[in-house]
Amino acid sequence: MKKILITGGAGTIGAHFIHKHNTKYDITVVDIKTDHVNFPKNVRVIEADLSDYSICVDLTKGMNVVIHLAGIIDETENDDALDINSLLIKNVFKATAINKCDRLIFASSAQTIEHYPNDLQIDKNRPVRPHNLYGVAKCFGEALASYYADQHGISTICLRIGAYLFVEDFTEMNTRDLSAYLHPDDCNQILIGCIETEGLHYEILNSISNNRYKRLDISETIEKVGYRPKADAFELFRWKSE
User: Are the beta carbons of 95 and 60 closer than 8 angstroms?
Assistant: First the structure.
């Protein structure tokens, strides 16, 4: 079984993945707070502050794959969030490279390109245009992932995650959010593809569902990791055009 470290694993994305796939992998969760999630007994759970680089080094030892989900979700102009998210990215990425883990999977965000007009579909080759400092930190992570892939030889994959939401939690979405929607099960499918697909060096993969109108182009995600999205936000949430 592959040994996988999931930082921020007590968050929504990590917890859903772990509950669905904990028997497939040897999983260690690290988060600054974990008592709000009940994980299966076979999952190793550690509370730690990843702003301490030495802790990151200890946690990544012996891991095949590191999935970096940890960070502060803050789409305001908050310098503290930018500083903290950038520090966590720097510490986890460096520790992953020092310990020669096989692959790093980074939860980037659609916020890296969110300053483009809403009616424009974005592929990974367009220059980043973050709309907020949260997106700026994600741009930093994508650049650092490229550096560690090229200079240290670890495989790195950046997932530009869209509007992740459980169907039962839906209240309201505008058309932009619907076009960027990512169903949790589709997200799990992408993560499995990223863990299992061999021969990837450095990739940026757009991560949304099979929405009727797509904010992000997912053709490379389909090609590179065998993604077969099932959900369509416009159908799930009964959106109708005027």
Answer: yes
